[in-house]
């Protein structure tokens, strides 16, 4: 059992061929309470024949407000824990195959996983809420059975694909202040969440759910029909922000019909930068969502209703097409075109404010 003292750790380290026998330990836990400082129990096996025997362990949890427990295996070390099925508040750092058995784990919450240049088997995980998964240097993993991915973050790099076919909805936390992130970065990197149908933001202030396709990455949310951020909470900014930045970067929201933010101070966005693209061909309703097109094209052919005080910004020859917009309520809606060849096209409606700067053009039809 760990401590509630801040920035204090119990370290279990097998190094350079050493062995630690904890073969009868069934539970490792960190207590709730204390401050928000990091603390925890950390297990390390580093070096050939280095071994920590936790063969009876079934549960490794840390209930601290800011948990920092961890299992790390590297340089051919090994942690024996083939009965371990539940982890909470415990990170995993895996840069070698077979250093830690993982296929039997079913619950992995509030943890952070880094998979570095190996194929990690997390096929048994069904609940990964509040956790983050980072794939680097060609690392891959199997999360095919993860049903509960609420509050989770995913970082996909180096041209690999991460799919979560069992997840159908996503809800961000109303109790944590950390941003949650979906990110695919680099040519060929793909985050496949194509079975999600809804995304719900948080009421926590200055907290965001970020969806980011960068430098040629792709995020598939092609069955999401609704993105919402609920009312309530403080007047601080918060929201869901979608970004595609860089040539061939793409976020597929082709089934999305409604993107709304009911927060007192909404700060949701759709942004395309440097020839990135967001597919929103069915999007009909926006509330509390700003639009940004910077050296890119943002087309919203189905958009008919825009609610709230919002900004549409075209920069550096970016274009935004709102030609089918037919209703503006609780505005104004400001259309700002800044820079030569920057263009916003919209229907002539009450509640529009035009701003043309540095050669930009707002065309009302």
* Relative strand content: over 45%
The radius of gyration over CA amounts to 23 Å
- Residue windows where pLDDT falls under 50 for at least 5 positions: none
How would you describe the shape? Answer: elongated
In total, the number of strands is 40
Our count of helices gives 0
Q: What's the N-to-C terminus distance?
A: 69 Å
Q: What class do helices, strands and sheet pairing give?
A: mainly beta
Query: Oligomeric form of this entry?
Result: single chain
Largest sheet, spatial ordering of strands: 1-4-7-10-12-14-16-19-22-25-28-31-34-37-39
Mean pLDDT: 93
Q: Helix content range of the residues, please?
A: under 10%
Largest sheet: 15 strands, parallel
Short summary:
The protein is an all-beta fold and 365 residues long. It has strands at 9-15, 19-21, 27-30, 40-46, 51-53, 59-62, 69-74, 78-80, 86-88, 90-94, 107-109, 112-116, 119-121, 132-136, 140-142, 153-157, 161-163, 169-171, 180-185, 190-192, 198-200, 208-214, 218-220, 226-229, 239-245, 250-252, 258-261, 268-273, 277-279, 285-287, 289-294, 297-299, 305-307, 310-315, 319-322, 327-329, 333-338, 343-346, 352-357, 361-364.
Labels describing this entry:
365 residues; mainly beta; 7-stranded parallel sheet
Explain what this protein looks like in three dimensions:
With 365 residues, this protein is mostly beta strands. It contains no helices and 40 strands. It has strands at 9-15, 19-21, 27-30, 40-46, 51-53, 59-62, 69-74, 78-80, 86-88, 90-94, 107-109, 112-116, 119-121, 132-136, 140-142, 153-157, 161-163, 169-171, 180-185, 190-192, 198-200, 208-214, 218-220, 226-229, 239-245, 250-252, 258-261, 268-273, 277-279, 285-287, 289-294, 297-299, 305-307, 310-315, 319-322, 327-329, 333-338, 343-346, 352-357, 361-364. The strands form 7 sheets. The chain has a 15-stranded parallel sheet, with no helix packed on it. It is elongated, with a radius of gyration of 23 Å. The model has no long low-confidence stretch (mean pLDDT 93).
């Amino acid at each position: 059992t760990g401590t509630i003292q801040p920035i204090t750790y119990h370290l279990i380290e097998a190094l350079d061929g050493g062995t630690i026998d904890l073969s009868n330990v069934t539970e490792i836990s960190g207590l709730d309470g204390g401050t928000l400082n990091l603390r925890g129990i950390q297990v390390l096996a580093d070096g050939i024949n280095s071994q920590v025997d936790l063969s009876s362990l079934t549960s490794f949890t840390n209930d601290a407000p800011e948990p920092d427990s961890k299992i790390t295996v590297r340089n051919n070390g090994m942690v024996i824990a083939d009965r371990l099925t539940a982890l909470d508040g415990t990170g995993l750092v895996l840069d070698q195959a077979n250093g830690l058995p993982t296929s039997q784990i079913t619950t992995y919450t509030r943890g952070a996983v880094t998979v570095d240049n190996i194929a990690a088997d997390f096929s048994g995980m069904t609940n990964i809420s509040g956790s983050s998964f980072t794939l680097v240097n060609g690392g891959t993993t199997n999360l095919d059975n993860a049903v509960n991915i609420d509050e989770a973050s995913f970082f996909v790099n180096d041209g690999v694909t991460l799919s979560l076919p069992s997840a159908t909805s996503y809800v961000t936390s109303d109790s944590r202040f950390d941003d949650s992130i979906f990110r695919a970065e680099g040519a060929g990197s793909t985050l496949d969440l194509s079975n999600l149908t809804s995304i719900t933001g948080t009421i926590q202030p200055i907290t965001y759910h970020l969806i980011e396709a960068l430098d040629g990455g792709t995020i598939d949310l092609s069955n999401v029909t609704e993105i919402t951020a609920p009312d309530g909470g403080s007047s601080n900014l918060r929201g869901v922000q979608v970004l595609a930045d860089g040539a061939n970067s793409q976020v597929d929201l082709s089934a999305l019909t409604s993107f709304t933010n009911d927060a007192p101070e909404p700060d949701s966005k759709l942004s395309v930068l440097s020839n990135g693209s967001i597919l929103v061909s069915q999007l009909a309703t926006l509330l509390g969502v700003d639009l940004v097109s910077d050296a890119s094209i943002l087309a919203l052919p189905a958009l008919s209703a825009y609610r709230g005080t919002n900004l549409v910004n075209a920069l550096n020859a970016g274009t935004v097409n709102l030609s089918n917009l037919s209703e503006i309520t609780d505005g104004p809606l400001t259309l700002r075109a800044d820079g030569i060849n920057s263009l916003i096209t919209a229907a002539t409606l009450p509640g529009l404010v035009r701003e043309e700067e540095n050669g930009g053009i707002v065309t009302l039809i």
